[in-house]
Structure formats: structure tokens, C-alpha cells
Design a protein that fits this description.
This protein is α+β, with helices and mostly antiparallel strands and about 150 residues long. Helices cover about 15% and strands about 35% of the residues. The chain folds into 2 domains: about 70 residues, HSP40/DNAj peptide-binding domain; about 60 residues, UreE, C-terminal domain (Alpha-Beta Plaits, 2-Layer Sandwich). It contains 2 helices and 11 strands. The strands form 3 sheets. Strands 2-6-7-3 form a 4-stranded mixed sheet, with no helix packed on it. Strands 9-10-8-11 form a 4-stranded antiparallel sheet, covered by helices on one side. A hairpin with a 5-residue loop joins strand 4 and strand 5. Helix 1 runs antiparallel to helix 2. The termini are far apart.
């Protein structure tokens, strides 16, 4: 049996915890795209059944009672953040990632991708400044598979 959760009650950033125990439930960032999710907790299994537009975020409060607040903790992803030094470098790297069907997130002038050794080697060979970090993503990497051919 599970307790149904249709929407978050709020987010820890502004939720009144008021001395209650905060229980964080670890969730992979890829789960942020899911409408249906079952999470074990001290209150039993929580069954998230979000409507079409609602997605979970780090810190979302799923349950609160007199003694505890249960919230989502999005686990940090291992990512590469590339800092192209010019438009030409940005186009070259974006094209290379696109050819590999790698989802990217643009943050200002930086390009963020999930870590993979071949991508790190590509950045090294291209001379693009980058760093490898663990980061809690505000939005997940989304793979958009559209049918196409190479030829």
C-alpha cells in the first residue's frame, strides 16, 4: 500500500519546518521528468501521481505532519561544464554534442552535459576550457529522440 501524493506541499526553501525532523528522500535527477514515482519513506511508500505540468524539484515537500517533514533530495549529477572561448568554439562543441545525441543544458555562456569520458576527451582535444563537478541540477537532461537518418 502507498500514500498518494498529487502535488508538493511546498519547497523547503520557504516551508515552515518549525522544529520538525526533516527526512530527505534521494531521487536521481532523471526522475524529475516522471509523472509517476514511488518512494519509500518513514511514513511508508509515497506514490507520486503528478498532473501533466507538475514535476518534482529538489526540496519539494511531499508530506508533513506534527513530527516530520518529508522532502525530495535530488542527487547530484556528475557533469562537465564547458566554457567556450568564442562563438566558433561554442558552435563546434554544440555540433559535436548534437551529432552524438547528447542532451545539453545551456547556462549563460556555459554548456553543461552529463559526464562521459569520451566527452571529456572531446573537450580536451578541442581546447575548450571545462570543469568536471558534482551538481544538483534544477532541471533534468532530456533525451529528445526524433526519427532521422544520416546520409
Amino acid at each position: 500500500m502507498y500514500r498518494r501524493i498529487d502535488a508538493p506541499l511546498g519547497n523547503l526553501h520557504d516551508f515552515p519546518v518549525a522544529g520538525r525532523i526533516v527526512e530527505r528522500l534521494p531521487v536521481a535527477s532523471s526522475a524529475m521528468t516522471r509523472r509517476l514515482l514511488r518512494l519509500p519513506s518513514s511514513a511508508g511508500d509515497l506514490g507520486l501521481l503528478m498532473d501533466g505540468g507538475t514535476r518534482i524539484r529538489d526540496g519539494d515537500v511531499l508530506l508533513a505532519d506534527a513530527t516530520r517533514v518529508i522532502a525530495v533530495e535530488v542527487v547530484a549529477d556528475d557533469v562537465l561544464i564547458a566554457y567556450p572561448g568564442s562563438i566558433a568554439q561554442a558552435v563546434e562543441i554544440a555540433h559535436a554534442f548534437g551529432n552524438r545525441h547528447i542532451p545539453v543544458i545551456r547556462e549563460g555562456d556555459a554548456i553543461v552535459v552529463e559526464y562521459a569520458a569520451p566527452l571529456e576527451e572531446l573537450l580536451e582535444r578541442s581546447g575548450v576550457r571545462y570543469e568536471r563537478v558534482a551538481r544538483v541540477m534544477e532541471r533534468p537532461f532530456v533525451y529528445a529522440h526524433a526519427p532521422h537518418t544520416h546520409g
